[in-house]
């Protein structure tokens, strides 16, 4: 079932309140079931004559036997995370590698190297490493282990041992050749359905991402105007003795609503926008994974066609076809398992995100409504007092 309707379907057994969902996740992530814990924190600025960059502390605690120690602490910069991602894609071309935050994430909304930008990136890098740690295959990747444990000079040395220029050129040539061949003739229906699903999902999630950013921008503009709106009533009260208390009351209500709006904006910036944009990036990753699977399939198809047209070297071609068939089967099985896992995680993330946003909005409007209702009640009491005093002889 690859219908996009699955994204919006709620299981009757799934708890819908934010608190119960959090409890469920805690139950599923019991510490004793995990053997690798990673934390990204303590960002540091580095200024050199050539560049300015940020490094983050990566602390790893583990009970795995393949690690020489139970705890490691290293510092990594963004370029190191990019290297790790490229190595994972190279080693596991048909697995879904988690996305990294873009180099200028939230561009136009926060300034680069501001505290807000750095904290947003830190959270994204923390999530990136923990998604890899929780993956049943990626977590045992050797480059991932080196990233977590090697000191800066060791990591730099290891990076230089990557594939050479000719190897990278060969990969590029094969990719271009595969794309030139056109569509895959024998693609299984399951992967056609995956591709159709991702095209629809990509359209929807991109629209949601754009709307969410526009909502945040409008909310910020409203907040900035409201900050100026309240003090005006306070200044006005100084020249209107008869309604001074009412004007001060309005100013107080606006100030409280302003603080509630600021809190809701922080929630959008922390909980909604990063999740939506993460899945925008996931759509690009998944489309790339599907293309790489098709390239393997296309290579097999071309060998089968070549065998049908050749009268000699059949034994050699048969051996190559056998290896390619195994490669295609491994790619298919890896992608199918990763697809199911990704889809389940995506649905949980979306359900949790939208439920939390709805809960936040509900609290926001209840808080603002209570503020204004309290003000109106006080004004009604004052009016009754004035009317009683006027009726007395």
From TrEMBL:
Matches recorded under InterPro entries: AH/BAR_dom_sf, BAR_SNX7, PX_dom, PX_dom_sf, PX_SNX7
GO cellular component annotations of the record: early endosome; phagophore assembly site
Gene Ontology MF term list: phosphatidylinositol binding
Domain PX as annotated: residue spans: 34-155
Assigned keywords, A-Z: Coiled coil, Protein transport, Transport
Coiled coil (residue ranges): 307-334
Domain of life of the organism encoding this protein: Eukaryota
Pfam families the record matches: PX (PF00787)
Record-level GO BP terms: autophagy of mitochondrion; endocytic recycling; piecemeal microautophagy of the nucleus; protein transport; reticulophagy
Keyword Repeat: no
Record carries keyword Nucleus: no
PROSITE patterns linked to this entry: PX (PS50195)
Family (UniProt): Belongs to the sorting nexin family.
Protein name: SNX7 protein
Species this protein is from: Nyctiprogne leucopyga
Gene (UniProt): Snx7
């Amino acid at each position: 079932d690859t219908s996009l309707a699955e994204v919006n379907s709620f299981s009757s057994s799934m708890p819908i309140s934010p608190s119960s969902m959090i409890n469920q996740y805690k139950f599923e992530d019991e510490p004793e079931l995990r053997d690798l814990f990673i934390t990204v924190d303590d960002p540091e600025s580095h200024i050199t004559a050539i560049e300015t960059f940020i490094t983050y502390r990566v602390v790893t605690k583990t009970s795995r036997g393949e690690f020489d120690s139970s705890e490691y602490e290293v510092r990594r910069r963004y370029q190191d995370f990019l290297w790790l991602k490229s190595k994972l894609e190279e080693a596991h071309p048909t697995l879904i590698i988690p996305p990294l935050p873009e180099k200028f994430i939230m561009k136009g909304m926060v300034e680069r190297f501001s505290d807000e930008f750095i904290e947003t990136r830190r959270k994204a890098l923390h999530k990136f490493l923990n998604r890899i740690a929780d993956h049943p295959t990626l977590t045992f990747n050797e480059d991932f282990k080196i990233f977590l444990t090697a000191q800066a000079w060791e990591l730099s040395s290891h990076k230089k041992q990557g594939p050479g220029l000719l190897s990278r050129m060969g990969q590029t040539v094969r990719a271009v050749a595969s794309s030139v061949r056109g569509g895959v003739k024998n693609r299984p229906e399951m992967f056609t359905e995956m591709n159709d699903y991702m095209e629809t999902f990509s359209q929807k999630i991109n629209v949601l991402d754009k709307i969410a950013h526009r909502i945040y921008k409008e909310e910020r503009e409203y907040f900035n105007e409201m900050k100026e709106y309240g003090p005006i009533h306070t200044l006005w009260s100084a020249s209107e003795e008869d309604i001074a208390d009412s004007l001060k009351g309005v100013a107080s209500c606006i100030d409280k609503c302003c603080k509630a709006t600021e809190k809701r904006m922080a929630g959008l910036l922390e909980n909604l926008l990063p999740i939506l944009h993460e899945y925008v990036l996931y759509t690009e990753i998944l489309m790339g994974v599907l293309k790489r699977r098709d390239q393997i399939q296309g290579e097999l198809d071309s060998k089968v066609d070549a065998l049908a047209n050749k009268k000699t070297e059949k034994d050699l071609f048969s051996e190559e076809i056998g290896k390619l068939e195994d490669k295609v089967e491994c790619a298919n099985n890896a992608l199918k398992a990763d697809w199911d896992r990704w889809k389940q995680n995506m649905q949980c993330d979306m359900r949790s995100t939208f439920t939390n946003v709805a809960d936040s909005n509900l609290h926001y409007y209840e808080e603002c409504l209570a503020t204004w209702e309290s003000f109106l009640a006080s004004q009604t009491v004052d009016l009754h007092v004035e009317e009683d005093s006027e009726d007395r002889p």
